[in-house]
Amino acid sequence: MRLLLTIPLVATLQGQASPADRAIDAAVTAYADIRTARATFEQTIQNPLVGRTLSSRGSFEQQRPDRFVFRFTEPKGDVIVSDGRFVWVYLPSSEPGQVIRQPVGRGPGGSLDLIGEFFSNPRSRYAIGDGGAATIEGRALRVVTLTPTGKDAAFVRARVWIDPSDGSLAQFEAEEPSGVTRLVRITSFTKNVSVAPNAFTFQVPRGVRVVDSKELTGRG
Predict the structure, then answer these.
(1) In this predicted model, what pLDDT tens digit does every residue of 34-55 receive, in sequence order?
(2) 3-state secondary structure the chain
(3) How many CB atoms lie under 10 A from the CB of residue 211?
(4) How many CB atoms within 10 Å of residue 130?
(5) Which of 64, 119, 154, 180 gets the most CB atoms within 10 Å of its CB?
(6) What domains can be seen in the chain, in order of their start residue?
């Protein structure tokens, strides 16, 4: 008799899961087996400190856990590369003549492992909330809010737009500790693609000065 009572109780508890819970669980499952990925994106950055809004777009390639490259088509020539040891931030559109080099981790280049940032053990790292239903280009999505519960997060709050039918990430918005807000729409995404051996190698252009992140910190 106890077993017969337990089965409907479990089914009832599962049925009580919120749409946000179901969406985040679908995303965790969808991204669990990803080792490499290729995507295109559009990005809008709002910086309240200087009152500026910057728009960009480009492509992204990743080999988890610590290799990635962002190649921007707008502004053309900007690139951020992690070779597994260093992150190279080369933005000739705003800082010509220099490239910032920093150890892999957070900083000017950020963590940038978007899959790991949002969907690796989210229940133990974030307070998860429901931001409601949304539609982007006819695609029915669920907005999930993520508020870090620890002190070592790359953002203070985030919203992720998840397709509940397959767990895929369509868009995200993250507010960084500095107050900068980053909105990224993913326009295409392919997982577990083959990557070239030199995909995550950065060659310092001739005449460009390498600036270590320690030097930038020392200026402050």
Answers:
(1) 999 999 999 999 999 888 999 9
(2) CHHHHHHHHHHHHHHCCCHHHHHHHHHHHHHCCCCEEEEEEEEEEEECCCCEEEEEEEEEEEECCCEEEEEEEECEEEEEEEECCEEEEECCCCCCCEEEEEECCCCCCCCCCHHHHHHCCHHHHEEEEEEEEEEECCEEEEEEEEEECCCCCCCCEEEEEECCCCCCEEEEEEECCCCCEEEEEEEEEEECCCCCCCCCCCCCCCCCEEEEHHHHHHHC
(3) 17
(4) 15
(5) 119
(6) 18-210 (2.50.20.10)
